[in-house]
Amino acid sequence: MKIHLATDHAGFAHKNAVSEWLTAEGFDVVDYGAYTYDNDDDFPDFIVKAAHAVAKNPTEDRAIIFGGSGQGEAMLANRFPGVRATVLYSDEPNIVLLSRTHNDANVLSIGARLLSIDDTKKHVWSWLHLPGPTNEKYLRRDKKLDQLTRNLHI
Question: String of b and e for 14-32 (b: at least 16 CB within 10 Å)?
Fold first, then answer.
């Protein structure tokens, strides 16, 4: 499993800390930036690369993306077919638990202004090690979601 990381200035410190930590833990990490702190950068410039990478391999790869709240980043990522982004914005373990076991989330969008780096690492570790859904109800719903978004023409 490759772990794709991306952020703008708001999640810069979190992304760097998580990147170093995951690499030390033996994960295959791909960092799409930002590579330097720039208060005027824009999250779409970086997040689009991580989301696109997961869209190319949605059952194997994962992404962890960072922003101030994580909301806009998740909105962008979820526009890609096969991407299931969820937002982690508090130290509530059920967010990551349900995102994996019910919704098979493959992108975790971190609200870096709302979580410490230590809490972020704790939840990322759980999210990376939780299985996807096994319950038929959630598998059925996830399949419908994929079918609807794959065939959506507006």
Answer: bbbebbebbeeeeeebebb
Q: Tell me the pTM.
A: 0.94
In sequence order, the 6+-apart residues with CB closer than 8 A to the CB of 29 are 2, 3, 5, 19, 22, 23
Burial class (CB in 10 A: 0-12, 13-18, 19+), 134: exposed
User: Helices in 42-116 by DSSP H: which ranges?
Assistant: 44-56, 71-77, 93-101
- Beta bridge partner(s), residue 37: none
Say if CB 112 and CB 119 are below 8 A apart: no
Domain count, the chain: 1
71-97 residue pLDDT tens: 999 999 999 989 999 999 999 999 999
Q: What is the CATH number of the domain that holds 74?
A: 3.40.1400.10
